[in-house]
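G., before I forget:
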Amino acid sequence: MKIDNTNKIFFVICLAVFFFLKVDAFAQQKVSGTVYDGNSDQTLPGVNILVKGTTNGTTTDAQGHYSLTASASDTLLFSFIGYTTKKVPVNGRSQIDVRLSQTTYSSKDVVVVGYGTQRKEDVTSAVASVSSGDFVESAPKDAASLIKGKVAGLMITEPSGDPTSGSSIKLRGTTTLEASSAPLVLIDGVPGDLSTVAPQNIAKISVLKGGSAAAIYGSRGSNGVILITTKHHKANQPATISYQGYLDVQQIKKTPGFLDAAGVREMNKKYNAGFIDYGYNTDWVHQVLRSSAPLTQEHNLTYSAGDAQTNYTAFVNFHQEDGIFKKSNNKKLLGRLNVHHSMFDGKVIGDLNFLTSIQDYPTVWNNYIWRQAYIRNPTDHIYTQDGSYQTRPQFNYDNPMSLLNEATGQNEDRQMRLNGTITVKPITNLSLKVMGSTSKWDQQRGYAESFQHISTLKNNVNGYASRGESSHTNSLFEFTAKYANDIGAHSFNVLGGYSYQRYIQQAFSMSNSDFPTDVFTYNRIQSGNYLTQGKASMSSSKSSYKLIGFFGRLNYNYDNRYILMGSVRYEGNSKFGAHHKWGWFPALSAGWRISEEDFMNNVDFVNNLKLRIGYGVTGIAPSDAYQSLASYGLGGKFYHNGQWVQSFVPARNANPNLKWERKEETNLGLDFSLFQSRLSGSVDLYERKTKDLLFNYTVPSPPYLYDSILANVGTMSNKGIEASLQYDVFQRKDLTWTTKVNYSTNKNKLVSLSNDQFQSKNNYIDAGYIGESVQLPTHRVYVGGPVGNFYGYKSVGISSDGSWIVEGKNGKHLKYPDETSLTDRQVIGNGIPNHNVSWNNTVKYKNFDLSVLIRGAFDFQILNYNKLFYTNPNYTQYDLLPSAFDKVYGKRQLDSEWAYMSYYVENGDYVKIDNVTVGYTFKVDQLKYVRNARIYISGKNLYTFTGYSGIDPEVRVSGLNPGDDPRDKYPTTRTFTIGLNLKF
Amino acid sequence: MKKFNIRITTLLFTLLLVMVSCTDLSENPYGEITQKNFNPTQKDIPRLVAPVYTPLRGFMACCYGFVTMQASASDEFLTPGRPNGWGGPYIPYHRFKWDPNHPYVTANWSTFYDGINAANRVLYQIQSGLVTPSSDQAKASLVAEIRAARAFYYYLLMDNYGSVPLVTDFQAKGLPSQSSRKEIYNFVVSELKDAIPDLPEAADQSTYGRMNKWAAKTVLADVYLNATVYLDDTPNTVENTGSPQWDKVLQQTNDIINSGKYHLTSDYHQNFSRDNQNSSEIIFAVPYDEVNAPGNTMHMRVLAPVQQQIYGMKAQPWGGSAAVPQFINSYNSNDKRLEDTWAGGPQIDAAGDTLINFKNNLDNIEQADFDQGWRLTKYEIYQGMSYSSDVDLPIYRYADVLMMKAEALLRTGRASEAAQIVTKVRQRDFDDPTKAEVTGAELQQGSNYNYGYWENGQVTNAQGGGDIKYGRFLDELGWEFAVEGHRRQDLVRFGVFSTKSWFNKKASVSRPCESVFPIPYPALNSNKNLKQHPCYQ
């Protein structure tokens, strides 16, 4: 080892480790032999052979032959790129021939981790990696859709059918009360989000689940880190053009099933229900649904070419999607270019990435229209006899066709990302990298309502228009230095770096009304009167923050048996209070590859067995900037001597102690692979403790300026188990079948809501809200209890006069609401599934392939808002569900106001056939230009087995009110896809 | 390789620069007023004083403002379940089942303390010289005004919540503890007395919506008027045994009357009209403006949704609250205040069509159709109204002063003098002036109000009001000040609050402590020094 200034430090570390070196005292002998490929029996040149535990080694010659000296009790390690390393004990032999088997999925075995990659067997933390071959193929909404059901402990749902909405993600339980729960998403190392790049442009997704892996990202790491690696041209591959495209058609998962006109009349006759019969017959839901099947088309083209020195990848994505409702669609065009340049024998490498996208979508459709469609009296007309919209004076009851037809609105979202890296390798094993990146996203909005819109028909405002713009810019500079070296059985990898990030957000908007005509829509906003009269709104805003970090990591591997990783990030954020501008985020993890131990040499059925343990500290910063500074806002205007004077009022207390939420996570894991790797899997146990929970605490005012303060107070804990098991059922030439099950469970507890400064008597937090007359929170989190508990009245029966009978706090049966008070509410369920299971199957038969994804969630409840509001026969001014007239508890019809009863909290358990894809890969051997051709058909959200009576039991499970199924939700859809992949 | 080394040196040098200059984490608040970028000047004084008054704008707010809080805890006003919602928290509230988390209880506590906080802050800013008024006199007058306004908030806290934390020092650290109701009373009285000499006497645009001398005196008179309640050592009994202060009521009201600054308007309605800032009767008001000072949404709360068409409104009303039927029945049929205050019967649009017909009956507090219950139209309903109304809320009118004086006279054995004042107040409300006349003997009679539980359109278990001492005078207060935020206090003072039933609220003599609301949960929760009133524990 050459010692120079650059690696002096490493030398010191090496010295320390040398103490552990074993000195072999046995007699030496000559060992020789030939190394073959296990399949083809061809000899392998260039195979590395090392005497285990020493630096003594050699490589095979052109004929695959080798020779070295070793002692009789030594073990030889045969390693070669693309092949599984084999350990062979000498056992006194002098001639040892070895067959190496090719590593299947060799690219998979490199796992992307923070600021680098690792061999899969070196990973000591809970990290999941999914490559494009294993992605869920049908109509992905965003990057998360690709790995839905693929990663244990990562719950990905698509709670809405809205073409502009994305996936909802939750990792390892609820860890925060009020801070963001969004994971950090990095695209080739640059922050973005799940929809920054097109799913088809993604080569690999890594999920850093464990705290020890995420800690290198400091105060952004608590919600897990999703590392997206995009597709790049591989050196020395021919120039290719590939096309991936699909068409899909969607249908509403289930219509809400309200009474039609005949049903309304029948209920009037049968039960004297009290619906007004306007004498007509309108299917309102049918009116707002698209008349023809909503189609989606997506096309992706990838060009890539070049050699090891210079190569490029260009990518174009076009996506056009119609939602199930009229005026609900989404169109996006995205282009991306990557240029890779290598010079001076690979000593300087430059990478340049450019991405731009334009997205257009109307903003007319909203959930209120949807509600108005299904609750509107089906005996009513759309239009009056003179052709204008039929309006009715009832409250919150508007003609949905006026709302839908008489509004125009369009958003245009644009993003531009430019990033480049320069990597310099001045000496062997050392690489220095500089990365600079700027990403800008901006949105332009326009929205207008005509004179025939409800806003004018009912509210007499003479038209409405608004325009707005928002943007955010994220600039990043990063410098990293890496040094790696192997000394005998010791293998090191050291990383150090600096990161600087600046984020700026800006917005501007205005609205106006009282227009002379509605023909301008939003294109001549100055022609209205409201803005000058002070009756319309105009606003602008700007905010920014900075995030600066220093980080380092050491990976150490001894003899492929003992693996150690230590990392630390020292990070500062301008959002933190003056007393805590900087924080430390350390991590330590270790792995023991038991299968590599000598005593395992004779245990043939074990191919890999690794025990991992890790501990890491991560954080979440407050969501908004300036939260630590006291601030005055603009209060109401004040009548001062005949003038209206703008007041300044306190808007925020100062909190110099404001800092990040600190999450400490311990992870214990076991990876195994048995019976020639036919059965493999892993089990992880974790405990995450979030301290210094960010929450807007109520404080007495006076003495505080303002009656709440964003502070770090409480503690929350999550404990859980994740397991995944994969089994190759068949491994024949023409037929393979791999089945994989993922399971996770998590136990959540709010440990405390007090600290030295804030000693609240409070032992709970309320969340969620049922509007209109109920006006109660839906959830309550008690200290000592879990997040997600529904908190309402426990109904047990119905009285002879149709009132609810509820179980009061002392167990007595009370008549609601005469005999009850708010304190009679109790926990009536929990909205977070206790068990999550997903089951993936991949079958390949000759040229056919089939994949089936079945997911299930168990042991949780859903609050069905539609049932609460629309199975109450007292509210016939709105259309109702047919079950409104059924007997409640088998006794009689309900005769009560709207109320939050456990009767409306249903079990949500479900099993969903989430995805089935059948593909056929054509034989292309005979074709000159085609390298690959595959067609597939696929179905998404196909069928759900559940007892839940609402539209879809897969509701939002994040936040503090999980399990709420609000009545206005954009319903989920079922999708059928036909797709084609071609590669030239 | 030389070239190469230069590259590295350049790179490392650049990096060093970056490292040194870029560990700066200072914040740059663009659109915010923080301590760093705000140095108030004399011009800013009104902007800083403003928050002392602006919390009052919450008084008419939907849905938990002060005015309906007082009215709904009384025999004049209720909010039943309606076809579009409502009911909910208003149901237990009507039944006097008060919870420390009830939005009325929590919202108003915050409103009052917002004002107190602002007052403490501005006093600190003036006294520490952070802002300097133009002269010593201006300073004295401003300090007096803010102290009087703060005393008004403490009076409201004392009236509604009994014993509350008394904080007067902006810089005080640590969590305050509760002062007794009596201590708050003494504080309010002494603050007002201190402030009055320095307060401006003008009663015009320059003091409109603010504390002038006469407004402060009216507050003081009101505090004295209720002294038997506030100084009561046995709050758990119905009787108000506090030491009476009737002479002091007379002294303060006489001062105001003798100043000649205020007069009864000829038309009762003028006090609640769209331009009521011009009323010569209003002593202290909350100014509202559709554009500049939004927040008066009473019309949205009371009108039926269909009435939007009658008034060409720019927002559809929510149609919740209505009069207690028994209250409507208590009016004298010749009293024009009935129709000046409430809308009953058919509501007709411009084309002459009846859109809705209000009945003076409601099924029950849980469920009532839109046409059930008379609607409050006292605060002017005008064409083209939007979400917010232009009508100002009078907190104290000259009629208050007169009626306070009358009550003090009545309670000190000078009934006929009291009757003369009451007659004077009533005269504008009757076409036939003889019908307006009241005698001292009449004022000493019981109430006309037919108390009792309401079921199926009538009173069951009638209690009546004949046994209420000075009940006839209480009725008079009800008619004159309906839904002006007085009724709860009056019922407590006359011993009616917990002893009578009306509509779906039952008498609950066993818990007279209900005359104060519970300490709100968020307050208890954030300050461990606070203790809940015993009867709410």
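The first helix of chain A runs from residue 8 to 18. Chain A touches chain B through 91 residues (CB under 8 Å).

More on Monday.
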